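Input structure tokens:
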């Protein structure tokens, strides 16, 4: 018999939490997250959660430290209020790019965050498209890493299949060598070809040269990455594809961080459409960037939450 399902959220992305609650046919839990005058965060649960199966939806996106602290405090409040099980639903896992030591005397921040989330009393983690798969191993509790690929693929198929152009004309492009496996997986499921952007500096202090490996002449191209932060690499890659004769350049990613001048770069680039998911709150960015197409992952998260609550398999969602 499943325990009573309760869904809570902080201030990072309440819209997504409400969408997930609607998919599950339940009301969002009543919790207050506020700030003291000195910036300290205060959390209060306004309803009984004793013996419940509690889920906290909170991406640790900008402001990363505030949103992470909110997540930890909500989990601590649930634990002290005797929730039977607590699952941290982290659609975007902040600090994920700091997953290894790339130089001496630096922390492995993704591991430290995993330790914090575990130490506060979390029983399980549900996340989407971790930047590095090994981050799952940083936790000593179960971690379910969902993929946004089905959501993106459905949109791409509907967009291009109207003219039967997926196999004949679309090329999936990896903006760097590290994303080749992701691009190949996408291309295989769409039945189309791939290309790779090879970045290199010929000499010190010179601009990077972007070489396109693959045939994109006269083709529609889709740049694919797991996240877009400053958008510098994506915009440069789009320019390189246009320089090689690509007919159209679109881009897709799961996590649209879009920090700094990213929106301006995209608006002024050769990218015609930037397809993203709503793992991160994007209301203001969507208004500033007409090229953004935001797809919802609420139904994917809702199905995973439902299956976890019912103790049924969610392996079919890992596609």
């Amino acid at each position: 018999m499943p325990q009573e399902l309760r869904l809570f959220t902080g201030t990072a992305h309440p819209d997504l939490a409400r969408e997930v609650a609607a998919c599950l046919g339940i009301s969002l839990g009543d919790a207050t997250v506020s700030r003291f005058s000195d910036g300290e965060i205060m959390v209060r649960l306004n309803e009984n959660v004793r013996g419940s199966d509690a889920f906290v939806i909170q991406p640790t996106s900008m402001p990363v430290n505030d949103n992470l602290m909110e997540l930890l405090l909500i989990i601590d409040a649930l634990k002290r209020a005797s929730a039977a099980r607590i699952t941290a639903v982290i659609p975007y896992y902040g600090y994920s790019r700091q997953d290894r030591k790339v130089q001496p005397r630096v922390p492995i921040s993704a591991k430290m965050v995993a330790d914090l989330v575990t130490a506060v009393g979390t029983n399980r983690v549900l996340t989407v498209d971790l930047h590095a798969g090994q981050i799952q191993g940083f936790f000593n509790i179960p971690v379910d890493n969902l993929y946004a690929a089905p959501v993106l693929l459905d949109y791409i198929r509907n967009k291009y299949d109207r003219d039967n152009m997926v196999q004949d004309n679309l090329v999936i492009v990896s903006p760097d060598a590290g994303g080749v496996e992701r691009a190949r997986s996408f291309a295989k499921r769409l039945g189309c070809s791939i290309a790779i952007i090879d970045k290199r500096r010929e000499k010190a202090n010179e601009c990077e040269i972007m070489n396109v490996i693959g045939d994109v002449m006269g083709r529609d191209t889709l740049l694919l990455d797991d996240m877009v932060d400053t958008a510098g690499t994506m915009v440069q890659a789009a320019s390189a594809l246009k320089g090689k004769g690509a007919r159209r350049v679109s881009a897709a990613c799961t996590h649209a961080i879009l920090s700094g001048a990213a929106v301006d770069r995209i608006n002024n680039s050769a990218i015609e459409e930037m397809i993203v998911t709503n793992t991160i709150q994007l209301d203001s960015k969507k208004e500033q960037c007409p090229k953004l197409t935001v797809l919802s992952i609420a139904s994917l998260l809702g199905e995973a939450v439902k299956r976890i609550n019912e103790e049924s398999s969610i392996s079919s969602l890992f596609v």
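Residues 107 and 133 are 18 Å apart (CA to CA). The radius of gyration is 21 Å.
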